[in-house]
Amino acid sequence: GRVTSPKVAAFFSRGPKSLSVDVQK
To answer: At what angle do helices 16-24 and 6-14 cross, to 10 degrees?
Structure first.
């Protein structure tokens, strides 16, 4: 996988649902 930053890695760790929520913010 491609990890550009710790935040991105955290988002993927949380899962697609949390990722979508973070994106909306």
So the answer is: 130
**How many angstroms separate the CA atoms of 5 and 18, rounded?**
17
pLDDT mean over 1-25: 64
pTM over 0.90: no
- The tokens 């991105």 sit on which residue? 8
List helix spans (H) across the chain: 6-14, 16-24
21 class by beta-carbon count within 10 Å (0-12 exposed, 13-18 middle, 19+ buried): exposed
